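Onboarding guide, step 5: your first structure request.
Type a short instruction followed by the sequence, for example:

Predict the 3D structure of this protein.
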Amino acid sequence: MAWYDDAVFYHIYPLGAAGAPKTNDYGEPVHRLNSLIPWIGHLKRMHFTALYIGPLFESVGHGYETTDYKKLDTRLGTNDDLRAFVKSCHENGIRVIFDGVFNHTGRDFFAFKDLRENRENSPYRDWYCNVNFQGNNEYNDGFSYDNWGGYNLLAKLNQRNPAVRDYICDVIRFWAREFDVDGIRLDAADVLDFDFMRALRRTAEEVKPDFWLMGEVIHGDYSRWANDSTLHSVTNYSLHKALYSGHNDHNYFEIAHTVKRNNDMVPANIRLYNFVDNHDVERIITKLWNKKHYFPVHVLLYTLPGIPSVYYGSEFGIEGKKERFSDDSLRPHIDISNYADALTENPYTAFVAELGRIRGSFPDLARGDYREMYLTTEQFAFARGDMIIAVNNADHAANVRVAAPHARYTGLLQGTRADTRDGWMDILLEPCSGEIFAPGDAAVESGDTSAVPAVFSMPAENLQEAEYIEKNPDSADSHNARQAEQEQVTIPEGVPYREMTVPQLQQVILEKMAKNGPVTERMRRDVEDNIWQDSLVKWAESFR
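The system replies with structure tokens like these:
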């Protein structure tokens, strides 16, 4: 297995995090990158094993209009600063990948400057796509050219030009040699030339074992980019969308469907890069209508197939709303010293740290086969190898029953124990919560979890039997009695759903299901397991 298959990533936008000016005057270097060195200890304490940081190299503004691929942005410092920063990360067991902005350059890049000065006589006229000396643009260059996203500030490189390809491959070699970088996130990978990406892959395999190439891809068949000949992984925007909207809409079917579609789409050896926010989208806490959903969202981020990544500051629960003409609020300056007590005082921070600790202790969460086990609009359970994960997006507690092959399981977030009965395990999930179960009397290395919110509970062995059955009406002892009770239920005519009892609502739903086709045992069990009136009313009303 390569290092990135088990990695937990942290993502820093350095110009923002270090408080750099918005515009580069190309003056004397200011060593702001050094202000990020204390973050390395934070990453280690939070159990992150890899850092994606970028853009880093000389540019005029936000970093994606590159001026010099071989020089750290003057606003951040010098190449020696970057070399020392990566070295410190490695000494703390943290891999580092840079942002590779290879689809386009800025207008101050040497090749584009030569094109502006020498026009038809420039040796770099074929370095850019569709240069037309009969055209013009808002800069009054006296020629036009292809760009990225409609912005002439970002001049599109001609990646089919061998000279361009060789130059960029040499940049990769330079980064590996000078900074010992472990991989590259390719900006705008969804518009990169595929032969160009194959050349980058060959270079990656040349410079360092397990050198990782991950591409920014928004839509489409991810396997076109992530495969054995182009990139190792791509950004999983489809899951990003499903994770927040699946909670806002109380629709776990969207998340489960997205996971299945992605698993069917990409080869088994490919792990997509999962995230809930980044430098281009709103913060997860801002997108969520119910802020408590932060917790089940992150349980899924750390346990669903893929490589999890957390964007700097989101582990503190900070807000960030996308503005019409600016991404500044998504890329803030943060002084890490202001969060010195976050692990013990901030529930979001403590929770993310605990998820990192658990993932690092149980390889199945990264490598185990994914199997869907239980799915309703508001509850979702699945297995990763021998591990069982369950989440609840409802505002009420919920019981989930799953087939469990082991006699006992340990809930790793709360340390509770759960015994199985006749091959089934009943999981009581508190509102807006989730739990990760390992077989047996598992344990995770001790840590300070005093700030972890006590919202994850399971039926413990010290509960009285009557209390257990009351909280778990679908336990093995009461299941048959409830089934017999439901068979005797009569549905009163003309009574609104909200005035019906729970058994009456369950019977309504089963009858409506039967009109649409055969009711399987799994479908019947899903109805029986739902004992919350509000949820059942919504379910009954959903039928047409």
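Each response can be followed by summary notes, for example: The mean pLDDT is 90.
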